[in-house]
Amino acid sequence: MSVVSPVRDLVTFMTSALRAPAVIGAVAPSGRALSDLLASVAPAEGAPVVVELGPGTGVVSAALRRRLPPGARHLAVELDPGMVTHLRRTRPWLEVLQGDAADLQKLLADAGVDRADAIISGLPWTLFPESAQRGIIEQVTKVLAPGAPFTTFAYSHVRSFPTQRRFRGVLEEAFAEVVVTPTVWRNLPPAMAYQCRHPEDA
Ligand SMILES: C[S@@+](CC[C@H](N)C(=O)[O-])C[C@H]1O[C@@H](n2cnc3c(N)ncnc32)[C@H](O)[C@@H]1O
C-alpha cells in the first residue's frame, strides 16, 4: 500500500544524502513554499506533459500533483535507486524514469514523449562540472515546447559564490528570458528560483 509520510520522506532523503552526498546535494527536501513556487510554472489546464528532474523523495512532485489538471502526464527522471524505489512506493501516480538527466531526450523518447510543457528541476547543479550543466541544459532546451518554462532553484546564501554565478551564466546563455524570484524565506536554507523561457537556439 502507498502511504505518503513526511517522516518516511525525510528518513529516505537523509539516508540517501548520507550515502551519496555528491548526488543528492542537500540535507533536507525543499519545503512546501519552495515546492509550490517551483510547481507554479506548470500549466494548470489542458493536458500538459510535465517533467521533473531530480524529484528526490517527491515533495515537488506532490506540489505538482496539487496543481496539475486531471489530463496531465507527469514524469520524473531520478538517478538515485533508493529515491526511485521510494517514489514508486509512495507516489504511484508519478511516472518515474530511472536514469540520468543528461539522457533526458532518450529517456523521454522511450516513454513516448517528445516535448514537455514544463520542466521543473531539483538537480544539485553546483555539484556538476560546467560541461555537465551545459549538457543537461542543452537536453532541456531540445525537449521544451515553444514558450514552455524551465525552472530550478538555488540556495540564496550561495547566490554570489563563483559556482552559482557560473550556473546562472549557463542559464543566461541558453535562455532569452531568465527571471530570478524573490527569496523564499520559509525554506531550509532559504532559496530562490530561476524561471527560464525561450531557448536561444530554438
Ligand atoms: C537536492 S535533491 C532535490 C530533491 C527534491 N526535488 C527537492 O527539492 O527536495 C537532488 C535530487 O537530484 C537527483 N539527481 C542528482 N543528479 C541527477 C542526475 N544527473 N539525473 C537525475 N537525478 C539526479 C538526486 O538523486 C536527488 O534526488
UniProtKB/TrEMBL annotation:
Where does the Ribosomal RNA adenine methylase transferase N-terminal domain lie? Answer: 33-166
Q: Which GO terms describe its biological process?
A: methylation
Named from the GO MF annotations, one term is: methyltransferase activity
Which InterPro entries does the protein's record reference? Methyltransf_25, rRNA_Ade_methylase_Trfase_N, SAM-dependent_MTases_sf
| Keywords, ordered alphabetically | Methyltransferase, S-adenosyl-L-methionine, Transferase
Q: Does the keyword Manganese apply?
A: no
- What SMART domains does the record tag this protein with? rADc
- Enumerate the Gene3D superfamilies for this protein: Vaccinia Virus protein VP39
**What's the protein name?**
Methyltransferase domain-containing protein
